[in-house]
Amino acid sequence: EDKVVQSPLSLVVHEGDTVTLNCSYEVTNFRSLLWYKQEKKAPTFLFMLTSSGIEKKSGRLSSILDKKELSSILNITATQTGDSAIYLCAVDSGGGADGLTFGKGTHLIIQP
Amino acid sequence: EPEVTQTPSHQVTQMGQEVILRCVPISNHLYFYWYRQILGQKVEFLVSFYNNEISEKSEIFDDQFSVERPDGSNFTLKIRSTKLEDSAMYFCASRDPTGQSYEQYFGPGTRLTVT
Lengths: 112, 115
What we know:
The structure holds two protein chains of two kinds. Chain A is mostly beta strands. Chain A is built from no helices and eleven strands. Chain B has no helices and eleven strands. Chain A binds chain B through residues 31-32, 34, 36, 41-45, 48, 88, 90, 92, 94-105, and chain B through 4, 31, 33, 35, 41-50, 55-56, 58, 89, 91, 95, 97, 101-109.
């Protein structure tokens, strides 16, 4: 059974801090790893990673995949209160129609 | 920017009743999905749909569930006889496999409450 594990499950930091969220996976047929941000309702897409060692960056957020270690990290620098959300890691492990396997998420709270 | 839409946003139903959750995927997308998220738990895959048929389904998607694309735009999830444990947020997602990006775009969800 495919498995995605995220850590920590929750994290409270102060505005301006840098955070690193972790995701590890065990899947039978890895295709890509995706990061989503979930605020009130729908997960919104952040990054998709397919190749090891290539950093993806969007503003203060960045992410990298390590296929050897079967893991990924999501970094957020200079955090703001608007970054407070649940960050979901998901793995696409099959053909085009396969569903994503999600981790439980990291609940990030940024205090002013 | 195109987005996935879902209706209703909240549905309350009695145990044993049938419910239909509706989704309008992004118009040029070809793969469609349903996920559910029980309160406090992780997002779980239910079913994927491509070319007018189910492509993959999880163990959760048993005989009480069905999906349909009744026309060119809507994608529905029917739960035949709801149980208390079906209470969850149900997300629809769609994906365009023709471009370089394979990410799934999620709708805002329908919160289903079974009483």
